[in-house]
Amino acid sequence: MRRLILLCALLTVALAAAAHAYHASIMDVRYNAQKKQLEVALKVFTDDFEKALSAGQPRSVTFEETPRPQVTALITTLLTRSLAFGTKPGEALPLKFIGFQRESDAHWLYFAVPLAKPVNGIYLRHRLLLDTFADEMNIVNVEANGKKQSALFRDGEESQKLVW
User: Fold this and answer.
1) Which segment of the chain is annotated as a signal peptide (predicted)?
2) 27/120 Cα distance (integer angstroms)
3) Kind and range of the H or E run holding 76
4) What is the largest CA-CA distance in the chain?
5) Strands (E), 33-158
6) Per-residue tens of pLDDT for the chain, all 164 residues
């Protein structure tokens, strides 16, 4: 009986360790030409994102226990530091954070990027979680003018031009 309990405990630990063996985010960007803005939904693993939000904080930050206004402020700061959307190289248009919601072991973050005029492409610098995890992969799916495309951002490949 002890061996069975020990075996079950070891299997549980092994499965927990293997459940999240990679670091990735998925960003969906939709170009809304009528509103002249990019509408963005970003999915991140909760535990990875909490680790990044906690960096430099006196206490660990969690979506469950940290007051929502504090989490929102930390998210806004991290997104502004890690992402830059622009119509020309080096530009960083302002991000308008909308909110977040939990989905299983991840969170969706929602924000918009106002544009001054209609565009046919953007420059994107995407460094989210690269300072926290060397193997981080940030996948970006863009839908604009009836076209869809995807791009991969990782260490050494943080900036790309996306054209539609």
Assistant:
1) 1-21
2) 19
3) helix 68-82
4) 70
5) 37-45, 83-86, 96-103, 106-114, 121-126, 137-144, 147-154
6) 445 453 334 444 444 444 557 899 999 999 999 999 999 999 999 999 999 999 999 999 999 999 999 999 999 999 999 999 999 999 999 999 999 999 999 999 999 999 999 999 999 999 999 999 999 999 999 999 999 999 999 999 999 999 99
